[in-house]
Amino acid sequence: MNEPTPLDKAEAAVREAEVSTDVARIVAAVLATQQAMQQAPAAPQQHQCQHDHRQRRSAGEWIGIACAVCVGGVGIAFASLALAILGGVAAIVVLVLRDMWRDMKKGR
């Protein structure tokens, strides 16, 4: 029937080569663009602040600070309570000693 002639086969091969060559050129151009983008230095920032930005505290640090304040507050409360008890005991001792001193002076 219609068997392709060698000339038709050659033309088909040339058409395939042209198409694949275009694809190869496109792939080569894309690869060259990617390489150029990777080798290009990063653009410098437009605006740089002159002052130093301090790093913000994390939630864990705030929780630690809150715990330290609570423990410190409880410690101060116990210390105040201890001083109040010590003051009361000292007052009682002074009153008892004064009463004993008066009794010794009167000769009881």
How would you sum up this structure, described in words?
The chain is mainly alpha-helical and 108 residues long. The protein has a domain of 40 residues. 76% of the residues lie in helices and 0% in strands. The chain has two helices and no strands. The protein is rod-shaped, with a radius of gyration of 48 Å. The protein starts with 5 loop residues before the first helix and ends with a helix. The relative contact order is 0.03.
What's the structural blueprint in terms of helices and strands?
Elements: H1 6-39, H2 59-106
Write down the overall geometry.
rod-shaped
Largest sheet: none
Structural class: mainly alpha
SS summary, helix count: 2
Strand content: under 5%
User: How helix-rich are the residues, as a percent range?
Assistant: over 70%
- End-to-end distance: 152 Å
Global mean pLDDT = 82
Number of extended strands: 0
Q: What is the gyration radius calculated from CA atoms?
A: 48 Å
Low-confidence blocks of residues: none
Order of helices and strands: HH
Produce a short descriptive summary.
By secondary structure, the chain is an all-alpha fold.
Describe the structure using short key phrases.
single chain; mainly alpha; 2 helices; 76% helix
